[in-house]
Design brief:
Elements lengths: L1 H22 L7 H12 L8 H29 L7 H35 L6 H12 L8 H21 L1
Helix pairs in contact: 1-2, 1-3, 1-4, 3-4, 4-5, 4-6
């Protein structure tokens, strides 16, 4: 959880610039110019405006990722104890457990992802609560899970590879 908090403060400005670049294609010609214009016109605080919702995304994401990874890995090793002894099998267990962790993490963090995207797409200084209300008003609770299938694929691959590399080293 602490790592997720620190990571949120590091990643939030980059995510703000990325979303603005994607959602407002004519905002500036490149990422550096997007950053400069946001800083100049909106102030540095605009790059961190999504921190509260970013924390509600990153902390559950990290907790779900590690919890599901650990629980699924433990269950698999209980069912197949010999898998601990063979390197290739233990790496396969890490890959599979990481995939499950990534899927779970994407599900719990998706509402905050949608809220962050809505905040940064707005041409106003929209806050997290206003963005979440707007998402709910426009599409109901299901709208909080817009893009979930793609995120499940992306995060399952990302997390499984993270754990595979970690366990390989």
């Amino acid at each position: 959880a602490l790592g997720a908090v620190v990571g949120s403060f590091v990643l939030c400005p980059f995510e703000s610039v990325r979303i603005r670049s994607v959602s407002q294609k004519n905002f500036a010609p490149n990422v550096w110019e997007v950053f400069q214009r946001m800083k100049r016109e909106e102030g540095m605080e605009s790059l961190f405006a999504a921190i509260p919702v970013f924390l509600t995304k990153e902390i559950p994401f990290a907790m779900a990722k590690f919890t599901v990874f650990d629980l699924s890995q433990e269950w698999i090793y209980q069912q197949f104890p010999a898998a601990k002894e063979v390197l290739q099998l233990s790496l396969l267990v890490s890959l599979f457990s990481g995939t499950l962790g990534g899927i779970a993490a994407s599900v719990v963090s998706n509402p905050a992802d949608v809220t962050i995207s809505t905040m940064k797409k707005a041409k106003t200084d929209m806050g997290a609560v206003s963005a979440a209300k707007m998402v709910l008003e426009q599409g109901g609770p299901n709208a909080l899970f817009t893009g979930l299938p793609l995120r499940m694929i992306f995060y399952s691959l990302l997390v499984s590879l993270q754990f595979l590399v970690y366990d390989s080293v």
